[in-house]
Amino acid sequence: MSAPNALHVDEFVSFIEDALASRHLNTLILRVDYNYQFESHPELRDSFALSKKDVKKIVEACRKNNIRLIPQINLLGHQSWASEPTNLLKVYPDFDETPWVKFPQKYIWPNPDNLYCKSYCPLHPKVHEVIFALIDELCDAFETDAFHAGMDEVFYLGESKCPRCAGRDKAELFANEVRLIHDHLATKNRTLWIWGDRLLDGKTTGMGEWDASFNSTYRAIDLIPKDIMICDWHYDRAEQSAVYFSMKGFNVVSCPYKNSEVGVQQVDDMIKFRNSSPKAMKGRFQGIIQTDWSDAESFIDGYYGRISLRPHHHDDEFSQTQSSWLCFKAVFDEIQSHAEKAPKDQIPGKK
Ligand SMILES: [Zn+2]
After folding, report:
1. Cα→Cα distances 221→171, 176, 212, 253, 323, Å
2. What's the rounded Cα separation, in Å, for the pair 351 and 212?
3. From the CA of 169, how far away is ligand 1's center (Å)?
4. Distance of alpha carbon 62 from the chain centroid
5. What confidence score (pLDDT) does residue 310 get?
6. How far is the CA of 340 from the centre of ligand 1 (A)?
7. How many angstroms is it from 121 CA to the middle of ligand 1?
């Protein structure tokens, strides 16, 4: 989920105690991006960002409750949203993989440029100096041994008009970027977590261009280090791809979003995979990560019933009956129901 707004840190800490610790949640990934007062690159801070003191409050709450805290900055892809670049490309437009793609006045999808989000150019000679400084500083502040780099939905990669990337193999470009970040983290005994979608073949599997890759990156699965944690997100259907990642030697977690039925199915599948796999693969099925893509305050409001969901009407694009907080509760209820009837070592999220 998103890291909290700096004004709501105390409320967030209460939420950790009340909603997460009580469920024995053991891992919390916070999407920080530029919501931190970076000293190494103050020019990249959000205008209103978490202080080190704010972060320490969260670190302390997690430590007290045995929750592993993992910060995230979206790397490679997701360098813009709708009609605006995010901080990295705003401050360093030279890093843009597609500088010729101009932001539209009013963003719509699909569009002729296939602009979903911008990417940085992984071969730009200056980009890693900047992002490695951010990673190090954030991991130090969060006192963590793991970092989530995002790296999902990278649509722009190895573009033919990029003077550095043109003609390169996209799977190799993706894998090299993953490896660089992995190796940098490894120098400080930290592990890398990424989303799994670029490592799945969207055409052959029929999983499509969001859950999986349509831009030839999927062969990267055989080119990256095996000690990377794969967050295998599938929001509309409980795909069985955790088995594929486990067979390739990766630790994997399955990730739902708003659809509770899918989330519950992913819990059941995780247990089935553990029970029905050879010994070597069992331990790689690491559990379930609930995802949320709103801000932390909205998720917490939803969790406490301060947001009402409206039934679906076909002419109302904002109506909805599903939510990440309902899915979160359903997923944990399902884990709990398994916990009551199974030995501890078979329960996702409990080790
Ligand atoms: Zn490039």
Report:
1. 8, 11, 12, 16, 31
2. 29
3. 12
4. 19
5. 74
6. 52
7. 4
98-138 confidence digits (pLDDT tens): 999 999 999 999 999 999 999 999 999 999 999 999 999 99
Distance 161 CA to ligand 1 centre (A): 8
Residue 343 alpha carbon to ligand 1 centre in Å: 50
Least confident of 34-38, 146-150, 266-270, 337-341: 337-341
Q: What are phi and psi of 195, to 5 degrees?
A: -75, 155
Contacts of 34 (CB under 8 A, 6+ apart): 44, 45, 46, 49, 73, 86, 87, 88
Partners of 81 in the beta sheet? 84
Work out the pLDDT band at 317, boundaries 50, 70, 90. low
pTM: 0.95
Task: Report how far residue 125's alpha carbon sits from residue 275's, in angstroms, rounded to the nearest whole number.
Answer: 47
CA of residue 123 to ligand 1 center, whole Å? 5
Query: Is residue 308 pLDDT above 90, yes or no?
Result: no
pLDDT in tens, 46-97: 999 999 999 999 999 999 999 999 999 999 999 999 999 999 999 999 999 9
Please name which of 242, 198, 256 lies closest in space to residue 78, comparing C-alpha atoms: 198
Which DSSP string do the residues of 83-144 spell out, in sequence order? TEE-HHHHH-GGGBS-TTSPPPSS--SS-TT--SS--B-TT-TTHHHHHHHHHHHHHHHHT-
- The residues that bridge with 75 in the sheet, in sequence order, are 150
**Distance from Cα 327 to the centre of ligand 1, integer Å:** 38
- Return d(Cα 170, Cα 249) in angstroms, integer: 22
* 86 contacts: CB under 8 Å, gap ≥ 6: 33, 34, 74, 78, 79, 80
What is the rounded CA–CA span in Å between residue 143 and residue 193? 16
Per-residue pLDDT at 347 exceeds 70 = no
Beta carbons of 98 and 67 less than 8 angstroms apart: no
